[in-house]
User: Fold this.
Amino acid sequence: ARACLERMEATEPRIAAMLRVDADGALARARELDAAGPDPSQALWGVPVTVKDALSTKGMTTTAGSRILEGFTPIYDAFAVEKLRRAGAVLLGKANLDEFAMGSGTENSAYQKTRNPWNTAKVPGGSSGGSAASVAAGQCFASLGTDTGGSIRQPASFCGCVGLKPTYGRVSRYGLIAYGSSLDQIGPLTRSVEDCARVLAVIAGHDPRDATCDPRPVDDYAAALTRGDGLKGLRLGLPREFFGDGLTPEVRAACDAALARARELGAELVEVSLPHTEAAIATYYIIAMAEASSNLARFDGVRYGRRAPDVKNLEELYVRSRSEGFGQEVKRRIMLGAYVLSSGYYDAYYRKAAQVRRLIRDEYLAALDQCDALCAPVSPVTAWDLGSHAADPLQAYLMDAYTLSLNLAGLPGLSLPVGLGADSNMPVGLQLIGPAFGEARLLGVGHALE
Ligand code: GLN
Assistant:
């Protein structure tokens, strides 16, 4: 824990991954664990971790990267955080993110911009960019992120670490500050596939406080890593639509090299098709913004966080608290979300998106019937220059093409580092996509390819 805190002190001035560091609390907890001695029932005994600031931490300020939650201190831990603590992990602090997890570069945080440890002129990806940067910079051994449309996998890919979005329902969302409730999942960002398996084993599992959390038993993820026979007998599907226009040559080359390795290890590669991929971005942004506008209605200046001072009446309290508390991107999404849900537009936008979502899911299931897992790039590009997407949010939305359809389908996805792009010299991630609750298989394939 001390070594990680020292590393943090040395790297934070350049990368700004952390919103809050609790050095005293972490060292006290580490001493407590030392005094008690190693405990085999604690799978993460003494492991220093960071957590995205969208997850509630008891007694530790939690802002979701927003001014409207300035100074908000939860009175309970998120389920996943509680599980980490009980497993013996040492929580070092809270990692930066795009405000309410809305973004792909961690540039929408109300507090600071995080930089990519590989090249500080570049974004770390987002929205879990602080988590990815803290892992990549060696500030911790694992971090928890959240993924609504790619926010674990894309920053993992931009920062060269491993990131897993579990199946919807595998990890409880209790204590997660909601963005799009039907899409959000919590998952690990780590330095290796093995570490990812060990953290997932701790945070997965049933929690009656999240009605969408699945009761089925948790697989033995660590056991899934020892395949022995490479990838023999495994069919990997390549969705044609994920290798088309828009994919940069350097990302394609790095993914092709990894796929060639998979073939050498005995995997059979087959082409599959996901014809509605084209509609995924529009579908996702309608559904995510609709859910966001509803979820964010609770921030009224009364119940949590920041309240506008010197107001004359209740209406002014709402208006000023929300106008001053939310950033530009969040306001844009609340307005668009309220619009697609409003009477007269609901059928044309929201209902239609929900129908297309079903088609996208069915296509995934059909593709996964033909193979054991799908392989695709995580992002069509490597990390971009800080500020280069500031003027055009649509440009950033388009970059999510390969990640967000998975959230619409509720399926698990693993982002695996597969080397550096030949042009940018920045990390590239390969995405492994599996059937619902197929995390063990994805981790096994990822470990073999690592
Ligand atoms: N970039 C996507 C968005 O802005 C995904 C964010 C996420 O997964 N939290 O909605």
About this structure: The chain has a mean pLDDT of 96.
